[in-house]
Amino acid sequence: MRSIAYRFTADEPHMRTGIGIRRDKAIRVSGGEGVAHYGPYVPLPAGTYRATFRFRRDAPCRGNAVIDVCADSGSRRLAERPVDGEGIAADGMAASIEFSCPDTMANVEVRLASPGGFTAEIEALEISGELADGSAPRVQAADLPSVPIENTVSRGRNLYDGYRRGVGLQFTDLAQKIVRDPDYREARELAGTRTIVGELNLCNMFMIIKFYLPRLAPGHIVEFGSYMGGGAIFMAALARKFLPECRVFGFDTFAGMPQTDSRVDHHQAGSFSGVDLAELRHFVEESGLRNLEFVQGDFAETAAPTLRLIGAVSFCHIDCDIRSAIELAYDTTKPHMVAGGYWIFDDPMVADCLGAAEAMEDLLIRRDRLNSEQVYPHYVFRQP
Ligand SMILES: C[S@@+](CC[C@H](N)C(=O)[O-])C[C@H]1O[C@@H](n2cnc3c(N)ncnc32)[C@H](O)[C@@H]1O
Question: Fewest CB atoms less than 10 Å from the CB: which of 70, 94, 273, 307?
Fold first, then answer.
């Protein structure tokens, strides 16, 4: 029987808080009313699990709270239990909850809510468990919904393709089928907690890599903004299967954001730091992903020389949040993009990435006069 074990620490973006304050690698909850923790939004295959909050031993823990586990954006509750300071102390400053997933669940979260009066410092959340046996069928192109749209290229993109993927993910059970697909699962489990890319975004990337890239001239996959490397690992695991000649390149400083522009960017220099690139490269080596390379440094120094060396690109995942980086990524990659190549922008619809939206509006829409092929769950453009 296969097992899964995730550990998230309070300084990671997977662990989110409503009423807490992040300090000294902990989420400090000081008696307010509301959600002290939510996240991490991970997919869990069918199986039985235990989620455990770890609290700081040297911080007081008092009052009552409720832990629950939910899927589907909070609409499906899998388990719930009350906890209190005394019980947490008796369990070695930990509080656990057991739950099971009857089927693969996308975006599972474990919440800790306080009615008021709960005081503690959350250090980590662990989720571990055993997967149920059984494998699901592989997703085929015919599983994407049929749409009443002409299957033709217009203004450089094919809305038939964009509608099938986007409508499938937003209005049908396509995502549920994809997250159960054995190839998706293998890639997703390798990426594990190393990615903060949303599950539906990964589902869309899966479809493009499996069904659409093989129709184009050969090219490599590049990602601008790789952070802990999980998005690039996910794509490399799929490329290994579906695109044997394709290599994946993940660009990042691996030391956090460079200087940002406070007129447009919400993110600040240094955010997303703390990546251990040597450990990441070792993990990639151990996983046998020979088609994946990480390129360290500011895009301004690394992108142009690397792209000149590697040649054609057919898929560019731009996930770097700030205006200057998105401009650099797009303009430097553009001369290398094959006809029909895919541009994916992870950020423009994210509330704290308006600099990313501005770069996309100025460069792709206003200057290059492109129209998008897909807007949900992220923006997709095609190279004309
Ligand atoms: C949202 S994170 C990427 C998430 C990642 N794709 C994943 O799978 O979780 C954004 C990353 O962009 C990187 N970044 C932003 N601007 C950059 C630049 N000019 N050069 C190099 N890296 C940059 C940051 O260091 C950060 O790690």
Answer: 273
pLDDT of residue 128: 94
Q: Check residue 1 and give its pLDDT.
A: 64
Q: Which of 266-270, 349-353, 375-379 has the highest mean pLDDT?
A: 375-379
Q: What is the CATH classification number for the domain harbouring 55?
A: 2.60.120.260
Q: Of the residues 131, 157, 189, which one is the last residue of a structural domain?
A: 131
Q: Which amino acid is at 77?
A: R
Indicate if 279 and 347 belong to the same structural domain: yes
Between 382 and 73, name the one with better pLDDT. Answer: 382
Nearest residue by C-alpha to atom 9 in ligand 1: 195
pLDDT at 318: 98
7 and 109 share one domain: yes
Which residues make beta-bridge pairs with 9?
A: 124
Angle, nearest 10°, between helix axes 199-207 and 230-242?
Answer: 20
How far apart (Å, rounded) are the C-alpha atoms in residues 256 and 274?
7
Domain total of the chain: 2
Ligand 1 binding site (Cβ under 6 Å of any ligand atom): 195-197, 225-228, 230-231, 252-253, 256-258, 272, 298-299, 319-322, 325
* Whether residues 146 and 47 fall in one domain: no
d(CA 193, CA 189): 9
Sign of the C-alpha dihedral computed for residues 114, 119, 125 and 131 taken in this order: negative
Per-residue model confidence as pLDDT tens digits over 74-117: 888 999 999 999 999 999 999 999 999 888 887 899 999 999 99
Whether residues 108 and 164 fall in one domain: no
Q: At which of 113, 131, 149 does a domain end?
A: 131
Using the mean position of ligand 1's atoms as its centre, give its distance from the Cα of residue 73 in Å.
Answer: 26
Q: How far is the CA of 344 from the centre of ligand 1 (A)?
A: 14
